[in-house]
Design a protein that fits this description.
The complex is a heterotrimer of chains A (about 280), B (about 270) and C (about 280). Chain A has about 280 residues and is mainly alpha-helical. Helices cover about 75% and strands about 0% of the residues of chain A. The longest helix of chain B is centred in the C-terminal third of the chain and has 30 residues. Chain B has about 270 residues and is an alpha/beta fold. In chain B, the strands form 2 sheets. Chain B has a 6-stranded mixed β-sheet with strand order 6-7-8-3-9-10, sandwiched between helices. Chain B has a 4-stranded antiparallel β-sheet with strand order 2-1-4-5, covered by helices on one side. Chain B is globular, with a radius of gyration of 20 Å. In chain B, about 40% of the residues lie in helices and about 25% in strands. Chain C is mostly helical and about 280 residues long. The longest helix of chain C has about 35 residues. The chains are: A mainly alpha (about 280), B alpha/beta (about 270), C mainly alpha (about 280). At the A-C interface, α1, α4, α5, α7 and α8 of A face α1, α4, α5, α6 and α7 of C.
Chain lengths: ~280, ~270, ~280
């Protein structure tokens, strides 16, 4: 057996010379399995790899029923708006909760309770209130779902500011503004980046849910259309490019986040875990 | 006249509502320009006393006077050095100093000169642009001291500043501290739990016990420069330790007798 | 002459607890009650007033109407002979089954990733890609592939939530005290012994948290899955009444759902977790 448990510190195993990196091997295996499964299915339901690639190309070049840019555009706008509002509201609320005990006292329960509401229920409520809208419902749903997550993350960050430093500043009679500028804001930065990453990841997925029910254009609408005709292949073909795009943005945000952690390696773990 | 503390009392209320007296009617005088240590075991309130002088805690009774005038401790001209460096790790050494100076309203045009001056005094002239996490523990503490000096306080409050460091570093810093003190003539109030440190550094030592009272005040008349391993100092240390243990025993007997006799309100 | 110096730093948390912040109400239970009841009452009142002003039960049903309706659906059978309890039960069952399966996979995966470098190198990066797959897409595909069956729901929920569970357990396993591991190694402890005495005791309380975390996600995914073409379950009811445009009924079904979720999370699981973690605190 070439696999066995090893403790991290006492890693005495000699890593064998590999021809291919293991992550590539893993993907290759996955693709092989996919191809095998696709053989027993109708290509509209479970496309083989070749067919899938073809379909993706068709989708992206707007060769199919729906023009790619025409639908990805509105989706992106909704995501951007929802993300921005959630981050703003969530950060302010989180900071308030972290720094002022009375705020934390009375808002913790409602925030936690709101987090249990499934996004789809907000979508239903939003649509029954406002009907089919271009942006309102979708942005509202994103904000309602994502803001509590941002709030909790920023709250934990604001709460963790070292009282030692605040006390030190007090001995020098530093004003509130000086404390904010030199202690609180630098401390909060990594938490804000981590929250942004989480908020973005959530926002785009929630946007899809909202679009499935309450839109006449957008990626979610398209996917819903193909669902009704059971075209799993086209669902995948639309989902993949969007996923790749979003994955790219998330990687970018992660890089920014890591950069902002350069001073505080000990905080990295606790902030990253907050999902 | 210096710093006078009169009948200072401070009680803390615990979570379950119990009160406990941290400082009980403390009175003491710190001569201006002297080096005074406050000594005692853990939990005796020495840090609390320092924090009161720094304006960080309120007190329940008594008053504080500086140079003959009663004063609100928030207005005392102090610089504070903590046990941990408490530096802003995301700012350079120089920026840490300017932070304090700006907070105290020292004009920006003076900052550059003061930074250079104060960093030379603590021996870190080359580290202006360095970030704290790249410095050793001893160096970080020195930045903390430099920061307290930068605001040019008349009184320097120090809360066990060397207790987190290894003995060698601490010895060096103690000597540097004495040099600094003798050059600047500031009044130093130094809290410690280490008797040999107190005896080496101070003109006066004030002893607090766990009942929150001063039970001993001693002048150390050994001439400077002092050698930490000097026989006279060691003799003084052991005498003081004996006094301390005797007192603590007596205190325990008193408390035991009181509780069997009917109990304190607990 | 005492001075009033506290609070120079200007906010309620600015100074250490020692400066005498006393909770006037004492007792942790009283605090809890206050923290829940005050916002509940405030929100309830705002809702009541809002509904009164809008005066349109299709736009905003008021709290009284909602609660009455909630009681009604729980006690009366609808046109198919089911009460809301039946739907709740279905949803609950699906949630527990999928979260349990997810937990097992998460434990296996998480531990494997933390101890075996080959697994970590080959699969670690792909976990984040897996997590990028939108839940709604997984659900739609699952419904098509498994023909809108129970399997479809379970598969979808497990597929959507498991990567997060794996990462959660993985981080917990990584978090084990390395000093203890090197100590065990210094005494030549066998892998089995290291497992029994270092990893497992470290992990067990953690797994509780992982389960809570997974279940927290799973509730919402089950509901979303049910929305897409099942005929029974809370999500299915949400869908049915949404299609009918009956906001009041959507609200009415939401109430027992939230109550159950909060009760399970904070009434059962959290206290259990605190109990398991008590040696840590």
């Amino acid at each position: 057996m070439d696999q066995h448990s090893s403790t991290r510190e006492t890693l005495a195993r000699i890593v064998p010379d590999r021809v291919l990196p293991p992550s590539v091997v893993a993907v290759a295996l996955f693709l092989v399995v996919w191809q095998l499964v696709s053989l027993s299915f109708d290509p509209n339901t479970f496309p083989g790899l070749g067919r899938l690639v073809e379909t993706v190309v068709t989708v992206v070049t707007s060769g199919g029923r729906f023009a790619f840019a025409e639908h990805v555009g509105p989706t992106l706008v909704r995501i951007a708006l929802g993300f921005t509002i959630s981050m703003s509201v969530g950060s302010v609320l989180g900071i308030a909760m972290g720094l002022y005990e009375p705020v934390e006292d009375y808002t913790t329960a409602p925030v936690m309770a709101i987090m249990t509401f499934p996004a789809v229920v907000w979508a239903f409520m939003g649509i029954l209130w406002f009907g089919i809208t271009t942006y309102v419902v979708h942005v509202l749903v994103i904000v309602l779902v994502v803001t509590p997550y941002v709030t909790v993350n920023v709250w934990k960050g604001a709460e963790s500011v070292e009282q030692d430093l605040v006390e030190m500043a007090a001995t020098f009679d530093a004003t509130r503004r000086e404390q904010w500028r030199h202690i609180h804001v630098p401390h909060l930065q990594p938490f804000l980046f981590a929250s942004a990453r989480l908020a973005f990841a959530l926002s785009w997925k929630i946007a899809l849910v909202a679009e499935v029910f309450g839109a006449t254009e957008g990626v979610g609408y398209v996917i819903s259309y193909y669902f009704q005709t059971l075209r799993a292949d086209l669902i995948i073909a639309w989902a993949l490019p969007v996923m790749l795009l979003m994955f790219g943005v998330e990687r970018l945000l992660k890089r920014l986040e890591t950069r902002s952690f350069e001073w505080r390696p000990e905080l990295e773990e606790s902030a990253g875990r907050r999902a | 006249m210096g710093l006078r503390i009169q009948h200072l009392t401070k009680t803390f209320e615990e979570e379950d509502g119990d009160e406990f007296v941290v400082l009980d009617d403390i009175s003491a005088t710190v001569d201006e320009g002297s080096f005074t240590s406050i000594m005692g075991p853990s939990g005796c309130g020495k840090s609390t006393l320092l924090n009161i002088l720094a304006g960080l805690h309120t007190y329940d009774a008594g008053e504080v006077a500086w140079r003959g005038e009663t004063v609100d401790p928030t207005n005392l001209p102090i610089g504070y050095v903590f046990q941990e460096p408490r530096l802003l790790n995301w700012r350079s050494v120089e920026e840490n100093l300017t932070f304090a100076m700006r907070a105290q309203g020292i004009p920006e045009s003076d900052h550059d000169a003061i930074v250079g001056d104060v960093l030379s005094t603590v021996g870190l002239a080359d580290e202006r642009d360095t970030y704290p996490l790249r410095l050793s523990g001893g160096m970080r503490q020195r930045v903390g001291i430099a920061r307290a000096l930068a605001v040019d306080p008349e009184i320097l409050l120090m809360d066990e500043p060397f207790s987190d460091l290894d003995e060698l570093t601490a010895r060096n810093l103690r000597e540097d501290l004495i040099d600094l003190w003798q050059t600047t003539g500031k009044t130093i109030v130094f809290v410690t739990h280490d008797i040999s440190e107190a005896v080496f550094l101070s003109d006066e030592i004030v002893f607090l016990d766990t009942a929150g009272q001063i039970f001993n005040e001693v002048s150390i008349d050994v001439p400077r420069p002092r050698d930490p391993d000097d026989r006279d100092l060691l003799a003084i240390e052991s005498d003081l330790m004996d006094d301390f243990f005797d007192h603590m025993e007596a205190l325990e007997e008193e408390t035991a007798a009181a509780s069997t006799g009917g109990g304190r309100a607990d | 002459m005492a001075s009033e110096v506290d609070g120079t730093v200007g906010d309620g948390r600015g100074l250490p607890a020692l400066t005498g912040y006393v909770d006037g109400l004492g007792g942790r239970l009283a605090t809890r009650a206050r923290q829940i009841l005050v916002p509940l009452v405030v929100i309830g009142l705002a809702w009541y007033v809002g509904a009164l002003l809008l005066d349109n039960p299709n736009q905003l049903p008021g709290p009284v109407a909602t609660l009455t309706q909630a009681v009604e659906i729980l006690t009366t059978e609808d046109f198919r002979g089911y009460t809301a309890l039946y739907h709740l039960q279905l949803t609950l069952e699906r949630a527990f089954i999928s979260s349990s399966i997810g937990l097992v996979i998460a434990i296996a995966g998480g531990i494997l990733l933390s101890t075996n470098d080959l697994v970590e190198e080959s699969l670690g990066g792909w976990l984040s890609f897996w997590m990028t797959t939108p839940t709604v897409v997984i659900i739609l595909l699952s419904m098509v592939w498994f023909d809108f069956s129970e399997i479809a729901v379970i598969f979808a929920v497990v597929a959507a939530s498991t990567p997060f569970g794996i990462v959660n357990v993985w981080e917990g396993a990584k978090d084990v005290d390395v000093d203890l591991l090197t100590m065990a190694d210094a005494f030549d402890a066998s892998p089995a012994m290291v497992w029994r005495h270092v990893y497992l005791p470290h992990l067990l309380p953690y797994l509780f948290g992982s389960y809570r975390y997974i279940l927290g996600m799973v509730w919402k995914i089950v509901v979303l899955a049910e929305v897409f073409g099942l005929s029974a379950g809370i999500g299915a009811m949400f869908r049915y009444y949404f299609d009918q445009g009956e906001l009041l009924m959507v609200f009415a079904y939401l109430v027992p759902f939230i109550v159950v979720v909060l009760t399970v999370e904070y009434g059962v699981l959290k206290p259990l977790e605190t109990y398991f973690f008590r040696w840590r605190d």
